[in-house]
Amino acid sequence: MTDTDESLPHPEPVAYRSMMPPAVIELTDLHKTLGDRPVLDGVSLQVFRGETLCIIGGSGAGKSVTLKHIVGLLRPDRGRVRVDGVEVTTAGPTLLGTVRKKIGFLFQGAALLNSLTVFENVALPLREHEELAEAEVRSRVMERLELVHLADAAGKLPGDLSGGMKKRAGLARAIVRDPGIILYDEPTAGLDPVIASTINDLILEMQRRLKVTSVLVTHDMSSCFRVSSRIAMLLRGRIHKVGRPDELKSSDDPAIRQFVHGESEGPLTRESNRVE
Question: Closest Cα partner for 185 from 122, 105, 125?
Fold first, then answer.
């Protein structure tokens, strides 16, 4: 196994580490069993401020479970999660709420409320967690909808939206409280290549304009290679490899090569006891 520091190219570990921006997310020796199946078996990973880290791995490798630990939706059986210096693992409701304010979460299915308009869905976090005048709510919501090119759909219901529009509405809601961190759960899943490309462009635009730290989990390697600064591969409940996109593309590691190139034979095919 290789950890984050070993996977990055550097002539001398201490010198290289001093060049990196601070880690805004730190996962240390995370273990999690769901039901009777171990999902995470010692995950350790750092996400540095301002980067876009993509987590890959087979179905059931624990990618979404890892995201849920970052935002505090799950607590590990063992190990630590720190977000912006706060120990999420042991945080009480008030402190956890403060951490979550810093995090925007784009769920795989967008998780829009069907009875609310796009505007109302995006405004919901502000109305539930902020004390703002309605004029300020409207201004911030419309600004975010403009950012994801969805202002014209503000009055529509989710049932009137395409899959790509729902993802964009979900992204607008994820960023409406100005988070410093955005977590994306399969942002291009179920989308055709053209719409998926639009979502990738938006992820890059969020990075460029908002200077956020982003973590994506995905099966979509074209998306991963396009938007990520680094890629981490989950295998057998642990981080198998972390590196730049070009390093994983050229890797001769059998598991990485099989996943990246979509080969039918290899160690991933033989993995049969995985849970997402």
Answer: 105
The phi, psi pair for 73, rounded to 5°, reads -75, -25
pLDDT surpassing 50 at residue 215: yes
Is the pTM of the predicted complex or chain greater than 0.85? no
Confirm if 58 and 237 have CB atoms less than 8 A apart. no
Three-class HEC string of 174-229 = HHCCCCCEEEEECCCCCCCHHHHHHHHHHHHHHHHHHCCEEEEECCCHHHHHHHCC
Cα radius of gyration rounded to whole Å, the chain: 19
